[in-house]
Amino acid sequence: MSIRFTTKAHRGMVALTVAAGLALGLAGCGGGEGGDDKKPETSSSASQGNGSDPSAQEGQADEPLAELRGSNGLILQVTSAQRDAGGFVTVNGTLKNDGAKSVVVPAALSGNETEIVRNGRSLGGATLVDAKGKKRYYVLRDTDGRPLTTTGFSAIKSGESLSVFMQFPAPPADASEVTFQLPTFASGTIQISG
Fold first, then answer.
1. Which pLDDT value is given to residue 61?
2. Cβ of 77: how many Cβ atoms within 10 Å?
3. Where is the composition biased (Polar residues) (predicted)?
4. What are the pLDDT digits (tens) for 137-176?
């Protein structure tokens, strides 16, 4: 039993690390140290969601991996799907209201699992499908059953957007192309990097 707890605790810590990294990237603390070519691209993708400062890589940052349309003018732009060293895939994106009026985010996005639903609004209903391996991967949870995804939102005003993330178990290394699914949205194929 302690092995299971350790794995879940590790997942929770990874999620907190990812959330902290996203917060730093969104706050514009993406640093100017030029040693690693991959870091500026990640910061550029993560900070794209706030739409405040155009960057030199603007042309690249404007190209999402997938753009999925939902109900009432909602659009999910998947900006990255990064394989992490701990055996996880973190999907980042922007949930945007492209409609003319404020939209209540559908409760269906949380999925229908009791453990996730009782923790409030989230993107816990998201899945990755590896057609080649014939497997579906669900959003991970911490030890308290909370989904490792953006939570706590209910409505998005017209023209506004929200930076979001979801964390999944990683498919095998040879499965770099997967189908991303979110209830009430069209499905889309995305590439996993890393």
1. 53
2. 21
3. 42-58
4. 999 999 988 999 999 888 999 999 999 999 999 999 889 9
Per-residue pLDDT at 102:
94
The answer to whether residue 186 scores a pLDDT higher than 90 is yes
| Three state DSSP letters for the chain | CHHHHHHHHHHHHHHHHHHHHHHHHHCCCCCCCCCCCHHHHHHHHHHHHHCCCCCCCHHHHCCCCEEEECHHHEEEEEEEEEECCCCEEEEEEEEEECCCCCEECCHHHHCCCHHHHCCCCECCCCEEEECCCCEEEECCECCCCCECECECCCEECCCCEEEEEEEEECCCCCCCEEEEECCCCCCEEEECEC
Neighbour-count burial of 108, counting CB atoms closer than 10 A to its CB (0-12 exposed, 13-18 middle, 19+ buried): middle
* Angle subtended at Cα 20 by Cα 148 and Cα 39, rounded to the nearest 5 degrees: 105
Residue owning tokens 């302690």: 2
- Let me know: does 117 contact 110? Beta carbons within 8 Å: yes
Closest CA to 26 of 40, 47, 44: 47
- Taking residues 113-125, report their average pLDDT: 88
Higher pLDDT, 125 or 43: 125
pTM for the whole structure: 0.67
Q: Which residue has the tokens 């409030």?
A: 120
Question: How far is C-alpha 119 from the geometric centre of its chain's CA atoms?
Answer: 18
